[in-house]
Amino acid sequence: MIELFIPMKPVPKGRPRFGKGRVYTPQKTLQAEEIIAWTVTAYMLANRIEITKNPVYLTAIFQFKKACRVDIDNLGKLVFDALNGIAYLDDNQIVSCSFAKTVTDAEGIYLMIKEVGHV
Hints:
The chain is α+β, with helices and mostly antiparallel strands and 119 residues long. Helix content is 26%, strand content 32%. The chain has 2 helices and 6 strands; from the N terminus they run E-E-E-H-E-H-E-E. A 4-stranded mixed β-sheet has the order 1-6-4-5, with helices on one face. Strands 2-3 form a two-stranded antiparallel sheet. The protein is globular.
């Protein structure tokens, strides 16, 4: 099981952009995915947790310092994509997910990933 808090401003997954004859991911999205990926990788290494091939449950609570109008599905998609190949092989292994947005003093993402069948 992975359970941790990632101190960062939650960022929604940005839509692909088109320019100069190519498609690219917005820089803000890439940076946020990298923070999530590195934080979870460090946690997994420190706790000797390996990538899972099994189905998983994923819970994410996005904590903001003030109320905001951000689509929760785009916040979740950022986490899904950031952890592909790190916590799980592919986000199609996620069989159930729960997202919430809250306003607190500590801005960040509370993340919990459990393998199906494990408590």
